[in-house]
Amino acid sequence: MVRDISKAFAMNMFYKRTDMGWTQEDIAKAVGLSASTISSYENSKVCPDLITAEKIAVALGLHLADMLK
Fold it and tell me: How many Å apart are CA 47 and CA 36, to the nearest integer?
């Protein structure tokens, strides 16, 4: 189940970010992380904590719940 949530978050982050025309560096700057950390999230290597996940969702103009579907 955790892996499914992590994958859903990763896919939604990638699709929304690219739909907005943002690079990994853009989203990283928006939430105060490194581009390599964003890459790790998008590749489901690491799952962000809830606070970080919420910051990413807000930066992408989404609710956290939408990122987990």
Answer: 13
Provide the residue range defining the domain that includes 62.
Answer: 2-67
Q: Count the domains in the chain.
A: 1
Assess whether pLDDT exceeds 80 at residue 13.
yes
Tell me the pLDDT tens digit for each residue of 22-67.
Answer: 999 999 999 999 999 999 999 999 999 999 999 999 999 999 999 9
Query: Which two tokens mark 66?
Result: 């939408």
Count of CB atoms within 10 A of residue 33's CB? 18
Cβ contact 46:37 at 8 Å:
yes
- Residue 53: other Cβ atoms inside 10 A: 20
